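Hi support team,

I've been running sequence recovery on a batch of backbones for a student project. Most finish fine, but this one hangs at about 90% for roughly twenty minutes before it completes. I'm not sure whether the input is malformed or the queue is just slow. I've pasted the structure tokens below so you can try to reproduce it. Let me know if you need the job ID as well.

Thanks,
M.K.
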């Protein structure tokens, strides 16, 4: 049975979006782009941005399509680039391949592109259509867009708690609140982010590996980041001892002990100085800006409560992933988020629910921050 044009367009673009997601966490500072080349209703080429950001998705799809790309339609999850970098422009590749039509979700806000790619394709006589699956495409590359607009990565706060929002008992016992399926989801999340951040308290209490340990994804561990203004981190901790295998960055104050700095550097840790806020703590906005300067587009924050509160107070939590386990710990347990100092509900950070799903015995909810 023949598929009508609209259905074919939607099916092909959703395939391109699925391919784009494969690059999340491994292509920064570039966007994650997917491309599907279709001719006479048949897919002749597929591609997505490769690790490190190159080759681009369009180039990969055209390479696989070969001569079949001539006269075909290319479905691209973001406007093709039109500028020279380490690789030639994707617009040149599409034009040279002889594609007849290009369907794009939305414009790339990068000033080097910003509609220029679409204009170049149209000037070459290619039919260009935009807007298909635009909202979904914008969510996939929300981190890339956030870094362009605000100079910082998109921040996703991940919490795994009891029904009453506790991450541990009063004695500090926390393993394990959520079940194995939810913990596997946490590792998938890590693989889809450029970096993962914890505070000093979490690091000292748990000595976490902060890696992705799922079969097939062990090479997708994000950059490990810890905020440690006094460099209390020990050289025996996993983040330090494994720094030559998995990138480990420590954000600290310029006044931190020089000997400790050198010791950590000798272990392979990258030290990043961040100016203090008026209270002498690391300025959280400056910390995120420092990560943005280094190309990080998607940051996963896993703890602890004080870091989560600092992010929330500064209105820097863009996405919230909350896993609730079906148990109660009580008011004497350790809260997932420390005090926010709110007097009125109107001042509380608010979110809109994007999705909810059952993961084993637990419930995973994804939320997006409401615009102020």
């Amino acid at each position: 049975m023949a598929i009508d044009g609209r259905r074919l367009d939607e099916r092909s673009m959703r395939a391109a979006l699925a391919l784009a997601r494969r690059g999340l966490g491994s292509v920064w500072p570039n966007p994650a782009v997917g491309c599907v080349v279709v001719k006479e209703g048949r897919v002749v080429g597929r591609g997505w941005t490769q690790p490190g950001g190159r080759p681009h998705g369009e180039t990969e799809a055209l390479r696989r399509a070969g001569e079949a790309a001539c006269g075909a339609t290319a479905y691209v999850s973001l406007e093709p680039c039109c500028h020279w970098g380490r690789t030639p422009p994707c617009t040149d590749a599409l034009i040279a391949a002889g594609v007849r039509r290009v369907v794009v979700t939305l414009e790339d806000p990068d000033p080097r592109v910003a509609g220029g790619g679409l204009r170049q394709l149209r000037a070459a006589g290619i039919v260009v259509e935009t807007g298909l699956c635009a909202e979904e495409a914008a969510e996939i590359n929300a981190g890339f867009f956030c870094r362009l607009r605000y100079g910082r990565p998109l921040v996703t706060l991940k919490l795994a708690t009891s029904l009453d929002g506790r991450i541990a008992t009063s004695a500090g016992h926390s393993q394990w609140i959520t079940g194995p399926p939810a913990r596997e989801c946490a590792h998938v999340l890590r693989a889809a982010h450029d970096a993962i951040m914890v505070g000093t308290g979490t690091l000292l209490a748990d000595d976490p590996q902060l890696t992705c340990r799922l079969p097939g994804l062990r090479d997708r561990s994000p950059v490990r980041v810890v905020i440690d203004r006094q460099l209390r981190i020990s050289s025996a901790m996993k983040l330090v001892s494994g720094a030559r295998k998995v990138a480990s960055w420590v954000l600290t104050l310029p006044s931190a002990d020089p000997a400790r700095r050198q010791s950590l550097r000798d272990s392979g840790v990258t030290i990043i100085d961040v100016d203090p806020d008026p209270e002498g703590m690391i300025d959280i906005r400056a910390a995120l800006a420092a990560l943005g300067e280094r190309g990080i587009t998607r940051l996963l924050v896993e703890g602890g409560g004080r870091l989560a509160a600092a992010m929330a107070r500064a209105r820097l939590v863009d996405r919230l992933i909350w896993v609730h386990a079906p148990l109660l710990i009580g008011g004497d347990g350790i809260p997932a988020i420390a005090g926010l100092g709110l007097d009125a509900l109107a001042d509380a950070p608010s979110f809109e629910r994007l999705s909810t799903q059952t993961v084993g015995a637990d419930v995973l909810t994804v939320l997006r921050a409401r615009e102020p």
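--
Follow-up from support: It reproduced on our side and the slowdown came from queue contention, not your input. The mean pLDDT is 92. No action needed from you.
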